[in-house]
Structure formats: structure tokens, C-alpha cells
Design brief:
Elements (H helix, E strand, L loop, with lengths): L2 E3 L6 E3 L1 E4 L6 H4 L2 H13 L4 E3 L8 H13 L5 E6 L9 H16 L4 E6 L3 E2 L7 E2 H17 L3 E8 L3 H9 L5 E5 L23 H8 L2 E5 L30 H9 L3 H4 L6 H11 L5 E4 L4 H12 L5 H12 L7
Parallel strand pairs: 3-4, 3-12, 4-5, 5-6, 6-9, 7-8, 9-10, 10-11, 11-12
Antiparallel strand pairs: 1-2
Helix pairs in contact: 2-3, 3-4, 4-5, 6-7, 10-11
Length: about 325
Amino acid sequence: MQLRAFGRTGMRLSVLGFGCGAVGGLMVRGDPAEQERTIARAIAAGVNYFDTAVLYGNGESEKNLGRVLQKLKPANVAVGTKVRLPPSEFGRIADAVTMSLEGSLERLRLDRVDIFHLHNPITERGGGLALSVRQVLGDVVPAFERLRQQGKTRFLGTTAVGDTAALHQVTDSRAFDSAQVVYNMINPSAAEELPTNYPAQDYGRLFDHTKAAGVGVVGIRVLAGGALSGSAERHPIAGPAPEPIGSAMTYDADVVRARRLMPLVNEGFAATLTEAATRFALSHPAMGTILIGMATPQQFEEALAAVQKGPLPRAAFDRLWALWQEFSGEPR
């Protein structure tokens, strides 16, 4: 398994991370024996980053990951978790952040996590579930730093969703060590300029900002919540079709658009659309580790096999660019 330097942290993370989210569902609703077997297999294959959150099954993902890691006792694995602050707690951010991490550590059976990510969207002025840039830099960062000083987390992170300008501002502040960035074959805008009138959120070459700030990148929505399988069918333990992030306004529209990328498979660049999407995400040098959600051990094996094939060839990107041009001007 290839290890990549993770920003300025000094950590070297496996290019394939283990996503413990609710969309795939294995670590939330899966069979305990399958959870243990899949994590053991991942560790044996060289995976050393495990990503979870309170939000995933209201703590169930953290509990299950903690149970398995305590039993397996692997050496040198990194664990990241997240805090999602409800609007009712925006007036007491420091206390809410502290309580959230202490609960996570108890469920994970750990004294500290390696990365503690903010899970709320970030916008210029806030509103709804979103925190404003001022709240993030003025309230969240000091609370996170206190937890770091107390030895409860090594590094600080954000989930880079929200308004593009706000995400750039927070990244440029260098207050955070990690950013979870949307990057996939439907929306490549974290890396490059989109075609004119492209129907997706434009993240404005966010990778340029993470690189300049020394921020490590965790690739999220690599499969667009499953849409980049090209199938709307979902496994019985998978979560419902997720609210799309940075792509079409409905999941079904993402699936339709994903199917239009099938020439990559038909022309021999990859065996499946899922493989193409996985290899696309790890192709960019800014990427530290990519997260693939899964419902079954077999889906982990498929992700591992795709990663072992390495990045897509340059010709595949040329083909993708031509396909993306066809999306220009379509309604989002």
C-alpha cells in the first residue's frame, strides 16, 4: 500500500483510507464479525487511516470501530472523528466541542484521536447548520486547540463543504491541518477549472490552497455517495441515497450523469466505473488518503484492487475532459 505525506503533519497515511460512514453502512449496521474481518483485512493490506464521526449512526460507527480496534490492537493506525454542532449549541461552541470529543473518545476506547474534524458546513455568514468563517476561526479553532493542548487530538481538521470562498479563507488561515475535500469524476473542481457553465459547485481549485497552507487532504465523495457505480440500487444495509454534495441537485441526476462516463470502461481505461472513480481520486498529487464507504467486505476488496492498479493514465483524463464538456450548460 502506498503511503503519502499528509500535509505538514508528519504523518504518512495509506492512499486508501477506511471510511466508516453511514452511506455504505458496514460500520453502522453491518454484522460485527464482518466488521472485524474487513478491518483486519484492511490493516493487513496496509490501510492505516480509519475515519468515523458521531453523526454516523448516532455514535454506532465509533462504538463498532472502537470495539474492533481494541480487539485487534493494531500498531501505527490513525483514527479521525468529527463533531457536528447543532444550531442550538452555537452559543456554547467550546463546551459543545469538548463534550462531543469526550463522548467520541469513550466510544472509540481511545485516549486521543489523530485528527478531529469539524463536520459542519462553512459559509461566509453562517445560517442553518452552517457556521460562519468568524465562528470557525474565532470560536471553533480555540476550542480545538485547547483539546490539542490537553492531548485529546493531535491534529485539527475541517470538512470542506459550504461556500467556496469561505472554504478558501479557512484553509488559507492555516488554523487546520486537514481538510476533507469533495473530489470525484462528476466534480473535479478542487483540482482544475471546470468547463464553462458546468452544472456543479465550483470549489475553485481548493487543492492549490491546501498545498500552499500545508493542509493534508482526505478525499471524500469519491464515489459521489455511490452514484459513480452507475447504479441507483443500494445494498440493504447502506444508508438512503445521500444528499448530493457539490454535484447535481438530486442523487438520481448524479447517477444519470455518472453513466455518461461509461466510455472510460468501454474504451478500456478501467474494468468498472467504480474502479475508474477510485483511481481518478487518487491520481491527484494533492490527495493524501481517499475514503471509500462500503456495505460489504467484497466492496473493500474491490476498492483495494482498484487502488493497487494505481492512477488513471493521462489519456483517461483527456477523455474525461471531453465528456465533461458535454455537461456544460445543463441544469444542475
